[in-house]
Amino acid sequence: MINQTIKAPSIEDFKALLKRHELKATRQRLAVHEAMMALGHASADMVGDHIGSASHVRITTASVYNILSQLADLKVYSRRMSSNNKMYFDVVAERHIHLYDRDNNSFRDVQDEELMDLVRSHLKKRRFKGFTVEDIDIQLVARPTKKTRS
Predict the structure, then answer these.
(1) How far is CA 127 from the centre of its chain?
(2) Residue 25's CB: how many other CB atoms inside 10 A?
(3) Which of 71, 116, 113 minimizes the C-alpha distance to 92?
(4) What is the pLDDT of residues 101-121, one digit of tens each?
(5) Domains in the chain, please, with CATH?
(6) Secondary structure letter of residue 83 according to DSSP
(7) Nearby residues of 26 by Cβ (< 8 Å), 6 or more positions away
(8) Which of 19, 51, 53, 71 is the most buried (most CB within 10 A)?
(9) In what order do the strands lie in the sheet with 106-112?
């Protein structure tokens, strides 16, 4: 089943995640998470711009990047690299597929457990000499159709 609605942690769930990792729910961390909830997938610049226009919290782009990186290291968020060689962060840490729009350098979440199960099943039977598969990350690279470009 394909479902394109995957939920990010609510503010209350996010506060609980921070507490579990012994981090304080600072105004800056909460502002970053609120921006990520609104944006879904974003670079530090995008998050900083969103905070600047939607919040009274003052935060530098470097601080935004540090917060995003720390949360990705803790597996609260995940990292995505775009073809324009820019780091994007994903507010949804749950396993899912990404549809990457290479024209607009943007990501869309796709939940397709059937496809994930097929890939897991296939890879269970495979061995890669000198490597151990730790994770599966599926990213579909696409361009918008003419209908979706307008």
Answers:
(1) 29
(2) 15
(3) 71
(4) 988 888 988 888 899 899 989
(5) 2-149 (1.10.10.10)
(6) T
(7) none
(8) 71
(9) 2-3, 106-112, 97-101, 139-142
Model pTM? 0.80
Angle at which helix 27-39 crosses helix 44-54, to 10 degrees, equals: 110
What residue type is assigned to position 131 of the chain? F
Q: Which two tokens stand for residue 23?
A: 């981090």
Q: pLDDT band at 3, cuts 50/70/90?
A: very low
Q: How many CB atoms sit inside 10 A of residue 9's CB?
A: 19
Residue 55 CA to residue 38 CA, distance in Å, equals: 12
pLDDT per position as a tens digit, 32-82: 999 999 999 999 999 999 999 988 889 999 999 999 999 999 999 999 888
- Residues found in the chain: 150
DSSP 16-82: HHHHHTT----HHHHHHHHHHHHHSEE-HHHHHHHHHHH-S----HHHHHHHHHHHHHTTSSEEEE-
Sheet-wide strand order for 87-90: 41-42, 87-90, 78-81
